[in-house]
Design a protein that fits this description.
With 198 residues, the chain is α/β, with parallel strands linked by helices. It has two domains: 3-121, 3-Layer(aba) Sandwich (Rossmann fold), CATH 3.40.50; 128-194, Arc Repressor Mutant, subunit A (Orthogonal Bundle), CATH 1.10.10.10. The chain has nine helices and seven strands; from the N terminus they run βαβαβαβαβαββαααα. One of its GO terms (molecular function) is DNA binding.
Amino acid sequence: MAQEAILIIDDHALFRSGIVSMLATAFDSISIVDCASLHEALTIDAVVPTVVLLDIQLPGLSGLEGMGLLQQRWPAARIVVVSALDMPDTVGASLAQGACAFLSKTDRPDRMMSVLREMLEDPPATPSVGGAICPSLTPRQAEVLTLVGRGLSNKMIGRRLGLSEHTVRGHVQGLLSVLRVARRAEAVFKAQQLGLIR
């Protein structure tokens, strides 16, 4: 029977080995597996990843292009994008494609550890309201949505949650994509209709 693991997909060997070393120390009860490409990752049979740390810039199939394949192979895995491309458009696209979180390669190690613990401890939830399936939001997206609903700006949300304004903007863009709306006001209205916020 395949065992649970954290799967790291990144073509930079030095970065990968550093993350493997850090995670192996922090999570000694879970396997840490690393691959240099999506093709290599998709051939793995020995483990079932609980969390996938996915770089966007990969040889061959990029992280964004291959996210759907990872979701098909391991539907329960929580994908965390880890990239140096931390512009709002990239963050938003990652979250819209189904990533549960986005980490910049410039983030502090304790931020990565915090996000990983959250992913390992909290089962993914797809809330149901009135028999209709609601868009599935990550815990962070739900926090951002609540604060958007209170009328806070990206800067104020960033201060409240300890995030950069760029990261908040990415989360907001991800929310707009998930809710299939164009503006913040529409997102708030739709979220209220779906019972995601009050």
